[in-house]
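# step 3/5: fold
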Amino acid sequence: MGKHNVIVVYVLPPSLDVLKTRINNDGRDPSGLRLCLGKTEIEDVKNGKYSDIIDIYITKEVGAFERAAQQLFESIKLKMNAQDDNKELSIRSDM
């Protein structure tokens, strides 16, 4: 079996207010538990709790999916190039 290279990406909201709006707008957090867990997780991420497993951090601004996708694409290319110059990476914009 071949070796698999994995790049772990964490997508952050631009702010806790935006996170709250996103979670409240989707109607799946009537108890507030998702928001509470999300805030704790973001604090842990920012304090480095997962720095040994997360390779790339992306902040997804409101209404800026394409910019976040391009930032992710460029970050992955840099990581892959640092590991092996013979790898190729492509991204589909129709997803």
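# step 4/5: annotate
The first helix runs from residue 16 to 25.
# step 5/5: archive (pending)
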